[in-house]
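Interim report, section 4.2 (structural modelling).
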Amino acid sequence: MKKFLSFPLLLLIVFSFCCACSCSKDDNLIVYRNYYDQDVTTFNYMITNEYQDIIHIANFVDGLVENDKYGNIVPSIANSWEDEIVDGKQIWTFYLKDNVYWSDYNGDKYALVTAHDFVTSLKYSLNYNSKSNNYNLAGSLLENGLNYYHATLINNFDYAEVTSTIERLRSEDNVSELSYYENIKNIFDSCLASGQCIDDFSIVGIKALDDFTLQFTLTKPIPYFLSALTYYSFLPANDRFIEEIGFNNFGTSEKTLLYNGAYLLDTYSHNSRIEYIKNHNYWDKDNVFIDKLVFTKSIAFHSAGYTRIAYESGNIDEFVVNSLDEKGWNKYVLGSDATGDENNPKGNNTYVSNKVNNFTTYYLIFNQNRTHYNYSILTKEENLLANKALQNVSFRRALTHLLNRSYYFNNDLNLMISSIVPEGFINLDDKDYYEYFVEEYSMKNGISYEEASLKFSLDPLYEYDLGQYYLNIALEELNLNENSLPIKIEYTYYYDENYINYDKSRIDKWNRALNGCNNTDPCTYDKVMIVYNDAVNSINDFNIAFMNKEYNATIIGLYPDYNDPTTYLSSFSSYGELNSYINNNNTTKIDSYLDSINNHYDNLVERYKLCAQLEYYLIFEQSLVIPLALKYSNKQIVVSNLVPFERMTASYGLSPFKYKYRKKRTKDYTQEEIATLKQKYIEGKSSS
Amino acid sequence: MIIYYLIVFILIITSVIIILTNHHIIFKNSRIGFIIRSKTFKYIIKRLLFSLFTLFLVITAVFFLIRIMPKEYFYTHLELNDNNHNVLLDDNIFKQLLDFYYNILPFPKKVCTSSHLEDGVMTCSTYEYKIINLGYSITYIKNVSVWSIIKEKCGTSFFIGSISYILQCLIGYSLGVFIARKENKFLDKAINYSYLALTSLPSVIYFYAILLFFMSFSNLPVSFDIDNPLTYIVPLFSITLSSSLVIAYWVKKYLLIEADSDYVKFAMSKGLDEKTIFYKHILRNALTPLIRTIPTSLVLCFSGFYLLEATFNIPGAGYTLVNAINLQDVYLVQGLIIFFSFLSILAYFIGDLITFFLDKRVNLGKERDYERE
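Predicted structure of the assembly:
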């Protein structure tokens, strides 16, 4: 019998597990559960700019303003505000609530939230010594913000040493380190030239006039400043607390964080679980309906229906229907009678929601002045010819109209965009900025708005005949002899090994269109030829090649920094970020457009109209860029245990991540009820 | 601090005593002198010193291997203001090495534990004394000390690892003994085939198969959560199943080999009954080489099992190491590898000692010494 002793022992262990779990149940708390994908790197909002950190911080710390259910900007810690313009500078004054408290992780009151806390937070994030990754937004908006940052940066370097390092690296041909030091040298040079980099925080445009009055000074009037204040760059931090625990320890665990938001961080177990608990000192606690939130790490490898199964078995409260999960798609989208589609799902508690805050957009760009040829399969002459061709406007227009972008998508054109500023990014009085752009297009082309919007719902760029027409003009203008044809455009891009084949096959199709062949016949490329850059065959190669602008054509992504079309458009200006990848010399008109846009800070309709004009100019007249796709679809089908439409809405800032206002439903919502709620929401929105 | 100096003092005193005893100056005829002068004791000291030397080599190798990585690798992933830049890439590599040794060598050193801005410059406000300073994580969990991450992650790994190891031993050994008694029966064959199948199957596929099985045929949560013991079942099951089969297979193998040896035939001819021979003679001899792996395996549980942890989302040490390498968290990688190598050196040291004490056939001295005695 001895040998069977181990089995009862085993049983004992298993039973003791089961007992332990059945004994620990939460009582009477309203709990929301969900999965999370990526781990938090830090809760220190003064240094981080990682998405996975910010979505949690939004629930712990409140800023000056936030968005309400309808997307309007409403007071949060600020009670009221006013702005005036003095000597061309805009001065915003905020009057703060005097009853907002910081709580520590036990939920005990720590101190009042005062205007000084907002100053403290920027003191850290705008200082190079605190190693912040979160200085850019506040730095560029506030007067002298970046000047102060650069002053603290150059204090850490020696100019002579930086110059000698650059020379050494040049001789070693060490490109990646070189760009790092060149960047520092540029900052040195511009600081020495302007003389405005002063190592004194009092020059920065933020001041606490008294405990509850805060003043911002902006270099130029900015209409979207209130929306910028909903970002994590403008959250407060308590000076005394930081001194007590040390800045390097701030936000590393639940104990080293102060809270003035709707929730406290209850448990933080890295790579495993994050729990929030309701903050009982919260200034607006009547609008917080969920007592506890539990986020568990989702497993890395799983089937398409993984979240649906977890939802149905009650492990999580919300999931996004995956189109690859056939069972879930049939149940929640098509419905029992198979009449639903992705815009009108049929399942209970299922609704379409705007996916928030990811408007990363990809463009196909052309380098007009390539100077490096280390990673190239073309000769130098061929590259120079490509530069010459790409500097020609007609040639670029031909490419815009002949390169069919639909080859990038497997029949799923949802992600394709035809504008620089994506649809849904920003709206004014219920009119999407995108509509201004379509209006501009209809006006310039002399067609009605309906026709234009129909064209935009398909593909307004791909026009074969127009493209061939421009190509012939371009070839005439360039006046090349027979031997130098075809013009070879090198396409440099690397995503992974499998992607190369996709890229090559679509380049093949493009080449056929460029040279006037259909898709089946054999074709000789005698006019223009796009060449895939085989010299780049790893992600590391691509990074280096990309940094040196070693491409004639490539794909680049832009991420918006603030809630205004200029966040995309200004990067085409002479000093803009994207322009350094395009090397366009002809920027005078773009710059003057941007100047006049910036002058229209108080009349938003005019401002957006001007933006639309500039956008039309960039895409259709100059063809500097071909819009490709949004990184993620901005619509998703959600099945949820929460009441639909009861949440903060915004396409920017921290508000979309907040769980304030969100309620757990007590009954099932059918599609009819959801439609009524939606109608009610739309009515409420128009009256708000 | 005082405790630390006390330990160092005791170490010095002991080494002086050992030297004096070996030269027959003190403890001339006493029992303690005999023990210290014995070959076992000398062997242990020698083995300990060799272990320390190996650790030193490992630490140096880890240091250089991480810095051999192409620098582009860092620059493409770092922003202008990332703090690892200066430390890793600017300083002279030998200065870095000396700093590294200084931080690793176990003696108390002043380390800044909290700092804040004063007049625009980071100033340290609190210092603490630390014996070993492994630094702070830079990308994995920013600014958290590497040692606290190691403690937390290795704790979880050990928790799961040790439970599963105990289960494996209980099931594996009893199963092995059971099938050795009933050779060529159905269970024996089943275990033979499944052992072959499991060892030839890549572990990834095995784990995913288990994962898929539980996800489609049961409601058991598969994602590990330390506070919910229900989530332990699937990962424990998957690792215990495969490993206990392996143990059972080898236990059976050793038992059958021993059963063929001469002393068994002698015992049989003496007329001892089969049961006594099996449990008293064969089992004891056969299990010695297996039993000595138990403490080693238990110590190695600290370093975790990457695939198990990655599949079932266990926040353990193996998974952390792979993540840290992906995120280029140099200090965390350094710390983890040093800790792992320390553990394995320790584990094999313990394993050797246990073999020596359990198995009388093992002799530590050289042949020459043996003859002289």
